[in-house]
Amino acid sequence: MAVMLIRAYSLFIGEELNPAAATPFKDAGEIAPYARSFVDQAVDLGLLKGRGAVEFAPKSALTRAESAQVIVNLLGGLTH
């Protein structure tokens, strides 16, 4: 999800994003290596927040509510 979000966001704004600081999630080691920088960027932009304060749950499926929130976050980020 993070990879798709950041690619869509970058396409819309017409530029690649700078690397973001590493996410503070306790399960960050479970994030696929190719997706880590995308997750960091998505969290930095407020597009993704994880579950709770310290868990990202990268191997869990998103609920419908979480998916809807991600879309709202993306569309809100594109209008600023």
Terminal Cα separation, in Å? 21 Å
Run of helices and strands: HHH
Separate helix tally: 3
Number of strands: 0
- Please tell me how large the radius of gyration is: 12 Å
Uncertain parts: none
Q: Name the shape in a single word.
A: globular
| Quaternary assembly | single chain
Instruction: Give me the secondary-structure category.
Output: mainly alpha
User: What is the percent of helical residues?
Assistant: 40-55%
Mean pLDDT: 91
How would a textbook summarize the main sheet? none
The percentage of residues in β strands lies in under 5%
Quick synopsis:
The chain has 80 residues and is mainly α. It is built from three helices and no strands. The chain starts with a helix and ends with a helix.
Task: Report on this structure.
By secondary structure, this protein is an all-alpha fold. The protein has helices spanning 2-13, 36-45, 64-78. It is built from three helices and no strands. Helix content is 46%, strand content 0%. α1 (2-13) crosses α2 (36-45). 20% of the residues are buried. It is globular, with a radius of gyration of 12 Å.
